[in-house]
Write a structure and sequence with these properties.
Layout lengths: L1 H36 L3 E10 L5 E10 L9 H11 L2 H21 L6 E5 L2 H4 L4 H11 L7 E6 H5 L2 H13 L4 E6 L7 H5 L4 E4 L1 H5 L7 H17 L2 E5 L4 H7 L6 E3 L9 H22 L1
Bound molecules: ligand C2E and magnesium ion (MG) (3 copies).
Protein name: EAL domain-containing protein
């Protein structure tokens, strides 16, 4: 009997594997088509808000994908798939062009959009011609220096620090802000914060979310240390994943420059982001006039 059950479990396992493989393959084919056609791909923008003034300082570009026949697939699923298949390279290039074209469209409409940060995975960062791609992007879309920036995780910068410095410096040459994403979740030593030409440190949302409630002391100590360190190193600090007023309150005790999270704005499409940023602008200018 045991043997029989074992065999059945094995068969079931095989069947599940088969379905899974099949789905993965179908998804990969769909991703390949999207990379070719752009169909089902959209950029959402999540505001980065100045903690003290409420002004929208910038946005993070986040890919959204709804392939025909699948419904929405989360980035947590399709980004790793894109990584494994190598499709992240053409996908990332598409994203960069979509963002640049959107920034251009806003400028042509007479608006002054805030800076937009693009996520770069290791494979993207280490492309031979990344710097040239970025240079060409600024030129083709006639974007002012610094309007596009990048976010990298600690693991991207762990190896080959010398080469990383050269690439980061070249990007800084276009005025790009360069952020360390999800800070505190990697394994890196702290020395690279000093050695690399970064502008921004984004504290991972797990620390922000544990600032409130039971056993908040550990997170409070980490946030105090990290923000203090960033301040000393001249880095701008972003708190990620701020969801509640209580978290915002807790963060007011530390030198945090910018907030990003559902509390200050969810990722929304370009039209939604435009409304969000113009609303903040009106409020901010209104307050400035009231102060005069
Ligand atoms: P990330 O770069 O750390 O982006 C922040 C993620 O946190 C986003 O998830 C965002 O929707 C989510 N988030 C923002 N505010 C809150 C909040 O208050 N609470 C919670 N619980 N979550 C919040 P999303 O869009 O699902 O993206 C997940 C990850 O996928 C990103 O993490 C990034 O690593 C990757 N990703 C997304 N778009 C791209 C892309 O264009 N290129 C690359 N290479 N990676 C991307
Ligand atoms: Mg990011
Ligand atoms: Mg992040
Ligand atoms: Mg994160």
């Amino acid at each position: 009997r045991a043997k029989q059950e074992g065999r059945n479990t094995y068969r079931l396992y095989r069947a599940e594997m088969h379905v899974k493989d099949h789905q993965q393959l179908a998804l990969e084919t769909a991703l390949r088509n999207t990379v070719e056609s752009g169909e089902g791909l959209e950029v959402h923008y999540q505001p980065l808000v100045e903690r003290d003034s409420g002004e929208v300082h910038g946005a993070e570009a986040l890919l959204r994908w709804s392939p025909p026949g699948f419904g929405a697939v989360s980035p947590g699923e399709f980004i790793p798939l894109a990584e494994r298949s190598g499709l992240i390279i053409p996908l990332g290039q598409r994203l960069m062009r979509l963002v640049a074209a959107q920034l251009r469209a806003w400028r042509v409409a007479g608006l002054a959009p805030p800076r937009v940060a693009i996520n770069l995975s290791a494979r993207q960062f280490w492309q031979d011609d990344l710097v040239e791609q970025v240079r060409a992007l600024f030129e083709e879309f006639d974007l002012p220096s610094g309007l596009i920036g990048f976010e990298l995780t600690e693991s991207v910068l762990l190896d080959h620090q010398q080469q990383a410095v050269a690439i980061l410096e070249a990007l800084r040459g276009f005025g790009c802000h360069l952020a360390i994403d999800d800070f505190g979740t990697g394994y890196s030593s702290l020395s690279y914060l000093q050695d690399l030409p970064l502008t921004t440190l984004k504290i991972d949302r797990r620390f922000v979310q544990r600032l409130v409630g039971e056993d908040s002391r550990g997170s409070a100590a980490i946030v105090a240390a990290v923000t203090g360190l960033a301040r000393e190193l001249g880095l701008r600090v972003v708190a990620e994943g701020v969801e509640t007023e209580a978290q915002r309150q807790a963060l007011s005790r530390y030198p945090v420059d910018l907030l990003q999270g559902y509390l200050t704005g969810r990722p929304v499409d370009a039209a939604g982001f435009e409304r969000r940023w113009l609303r903040a602008l009106v409020a901010w200018e209104g307050a400035a006039i009231a102060r005069e």
